[in-house]
Specification:
Number of domains: 2
Protein name: DnaA N-terminal domain-containing protein
Radius of gyration: 22 Å
Helix content: 25-40%
Largest sheet: 6 strands, antiparallel
Strand order of the largest sheet: 5-7-6-1-2-8
Mean pLDDT: 77
Structural class: alpha+beta
Number of helices: 13
Number of strands: 11
Pfam family, one: DnaA_N
């Protein structure tokens, strides 16, 4: 089905040194929620969804081809700006219409695509690198990546070491990138302005597509993703403690840490607070502490869910922040206060 090109791609991943000693997973929302310290406009605690880890073999990741799940544009000379102009003109306006950030999201996708040279349809890249490239915060990049994944342009895979004793996520993630551009669905088409709709109709006529194009068949990515999930070799649902919804008093545990550790971690938290939104800081960092031994930092979290979230998404961010303050940091690990 895939032919010689697929075999070439397979050898690329199989020989990639970043694969050795790791296994790969996706983060998939569950029906479990936990309460946070944040309040909504009615004064009720904001609940956040718990993600489960779904692990996949490298062979199944290799064989995942995003192109086969949709009607795609023909390859046309004169219609490309790195990628087909259709993406820039018609997809960008509907990627995030409420926040009007579709152009920035489109630029992020083009950036990811630029890494996919030759037969490669994947990229190893860190959030910090992407943030620097598109001149946006890491938090914004995560939001844009989530939108691109929801729309079927990428699929993210995180990695963790196979050694159970060391689960710290590395800075880079594996991102499978769609290299072909699908037509807009009927639902997406309705989000275009009247002027853009008219331009879209002219575009379809210019490439001799019938006006009664079956949009419903153009884009079945969601169904395809569900089929891919059936290949998961393992699924891990985080265990949420019964006490996870109760307020955590960070002051009650500070005596466990030296004055120096409290000072250093306080400086790190202050720098982090300047980099991310107030909501993210209060949700993930406000009730954390750190111990330091031989330049190895152990971050203590109030709950396992917060530990795993920081581990999966903020490891490199925390390490870079520590180094910005000229503190030595050879390694970062995460734990929960109940495990001290």
């Amino acid at each position: 089905m895939y032919g010689e090109n697929f075999e070439n791609k397979l050898s690329l991943l199989e020989t990639d040194p970043q694969l050795k000693g790791y296994r790969f997973y996706r983060q998939v929302p569950t029906d479990k929620k936990i309460e946070t310290k944040r309040k909504d406009k009615n004064g009720k605690p904001v609940k956040i969804t718990v993600n489960q880890k779904e692990y996949y073999s490298i062979e199944d990741i290799e064989q995942l081809d995003l192109k086969q799940y949709s009607k795609v544009l023909p390859d046309m000379n004169g219609h490309k700006t790195i990628i087909n102009n259709y993406f820039i003109r018609f997809w960008a306006p509907v990627l995030d219409p409420k926040q009007r950030s579709g152009g920035n999201i489109a630029f992020l996708y083009i950036t990811l695509l630029s890494y996919c040279y030759g037969d490669r349809d994947y990229v190893w890249v860190s959030i910090s690198t992407l943030a620097e490239t598109i001149n946006a915060s890491e938090e914004t990049v995560r939001k844009y990546l989530k939108i691109l994944e929801e729309e079927g342009f990428i699929i993210r895979f995180w990695r963790e070491k196979e050694n159970e004793e060391e689960k710290t996520e590395q800075g880079s993630m594996l991102i499978k990138v769609r290299r072909s551009i699908p037509f807009l669905t009927k639902e997406k088409l309705e989000k275009l302005s009247p002027k853009k709709k008219a331009e879209h109709d002219r575009f379809l006529r210019s490439i001799k597509l019938e006006s009664q194009f079956e949009f419903e068949e153009a884009y079945n990515y969601i169904h395809a993703l569900e089929k891919f999930r059936e290949k998961a070799v393992e699924v891990k649902i985080p265990e949420i403690e019964e006490t996870s919804t109760t307020p955590f008093d960070i002051e009650s545990v500070k005596h466990m840490f030296s004055k120096e550790e409290q000072l250093y971690w306080g400086m790190v938290l202050k720098r982090i607070e300047q980099k991310i939104s107030k909501e993210s800081y209060e949700q993930w960092f406000a009730n954390t502490m750190a111990s330091i031994q031989d330049n190895r930092w152990t971050i203590y979290c109030p709950h396992i869910f917060i530990k795993e979230h920081l581990e999966q998404r903020y490891t490199s961010f925390i390490q870079e922040t520590i180094q910005e303050l000229t503190f030595d940091c050879k390694q970062i690990r995460f734990t929960v206060f109940s495990n001290t």
